[in-house]
Design goal:
Layout (H helix, E strand, L loop, with lengths): L17 H4 L4 H19 L4 E6 L6 H14 L4 E5 L7 H4 L8 H6 L5 H4 L1 E2 L5 E4 L8 H5 L2 H13 L2 E5 L8 H8 L2 E7 L5 H13 L4 E7 L7 E6 L1
Parallel strand pairs: 1-5, 1-6, 2-4, 2-5, 6-7
Antiparallel strand pairs: 3-4, 7-8
Bound molecules: adenosine-5'-triphosphate and magnesium ion.
Length: 232
C-alpha cells in the first residue's frame, strides 16, 4: 500500500490584498476611486451596511470586498468585514486569522458573543468576523431574527460593515442579506460573468428590493483595468 497521500484539498484560498501590498499601484488607486463613489452614494441616505456579491462564482467578490474594506479603513472609518460566504469562506485565510469561531457560531450558538468573534487584522480601523465552522444551513442562519439583531448591533459599533457573500444566482444567501443591507455592490468580471446570469442576478436582487448602488468592473486582461466602478 502506498504511503503517499493526496494533499488535502484546500477548501478556500486567500485573495490578494493589493491595497495593503502596494498602496501606490494603479489597482489600489482604482479601489480608492470605488471608495469615493461609494461615499457619494452615501450622501443621500445612510449607508452603513454594504453587501458585495456577483452573479456567479469566482468573479472577484472576496477580492473586492477585502480591498474596499482596507481603503475605507485607511480613510479613518471604523470598518468591519464579515465573511458571510459560509460556503466558500476566504477571510480567515486572506488575513491569516483563526476561523474556529465566526459568523456561524454567532448565529447558531447562544453562548457566543460579538466580542468573541470580532478579530483585529493588524490594519488600523479594520476588524473582521470570519465565517466560522461550516454550518449545514447558511441561508436559514442569514435569514434568522438573530441576523437582524446582529446587523442592528454592528451598525451601532461601526461606520461601515461589509458583507462578502456567495454568488446571487446559485444560492439565496446574498439575496437575503442584500434585502437587509443599506446597499449592494455587484462585481462583474471580464470574460467570466455571463450576460444571462448578470440579468438574472439583477432580477433576483430587485425582487427583494435590494439597493444596488453600483457595479465593480473587475477586469482581467491587465492590472490597470481592475476595479473600475460604474455607479448608477
Ligand atoms: N482581476 C483579476 N485578475 C486576475 N485574477 C483575479 C482577478 N480578480 C480575482 N482574481 C482571482 O480569481 C480568484 C477568484 O477571486 P475571488 O475569490 O475574489 O472571487 P469570488 O467572487 O469571491 O469567488 P467565489 O465565488 O468563489 O466566492 C482568486 O484566485 C482571485 O485572486
Ligand atoms: Mg468569495
Amino acid at each position: 500500500m502506498s504511503k503517499l497521500r493526496q494533499p488535502k484539498r484546500q477548501e478556500t484560498k486567500a485573495v490578494s490584498l493589493i491595497t495593503m501590498a502596494d498602496k501606490s499601484s494603479p489597482v489600489s488607486e482604482q479601489y480608492r476611486t470605488i471608495r469615493t463613489n461609494i461615499q457619494y452614494a452615501m450622501v443621500d441616505r445612510e449607508l452603513k451596511t454594504l453587501v458585495v456579491t456577483s452573479s456567479g462564482p469566482g468573479e472577484g467578490k472576496s477580492t473586492s470586498s477585502a480591498n474596499i474594506a482596507i481603503v475605507f479603513a485607511n480613510a479613518g472609518q471604523k470598518v468591519l468585514l464579515v465573511d458571510a460566504d459560509m460556503r466558500k469562506p476566504t477571510i480567515a485565510k486572506t488575513f491569516a486569522v483563526s476561523n474556529t469561531r465566526g459568523l456561524s457560531s454567532l448565529l447558531s450558538n447562544r453562548n457566543t458573543s460579538l466580542e468573541q468573534v470580532v478579530q483585529p487584522v493588524g490594519i488600523d480601523n479594520l476588524s473582521v468576523i470570519t465565517s466560522g465552522p461550516k454550518p449545514p444551513n447558511p441561508s436559514e442562519l442569514l435569514g434568522s431574527v438573530k441576523m437582524n439583531q446582529l446587523i442592528k448591533d454592528l451598525k451601532r459599533e461601526y461606520d461601515l460593515v461589509i458583507f462578502d457573500m456567495p454568488p446571487v444566482v446559485t444560492v439565496t444567501d446574498a439575496q437575503i442579506v442584500a434585502s437587509k443591507a443599506d446597499g449592494t455592490m455587484l462585481v462583474v468580471r471580464e470574460n467570466v460573468s455571463k450576460k444571462d446570469s448578470m440579468l438574472k442576478a439583477k432580477t433576483l436582487l430587485q425582487m427583494v428590493n435590494a439597493n444596488v448602488i453600483g457595479v465593480i468592473y473587475n477586469g482581467a486582461k491587465n492590472a490597470s483595468d481592475q476595479g473600475y466602478y460604474y455607479g448608477n
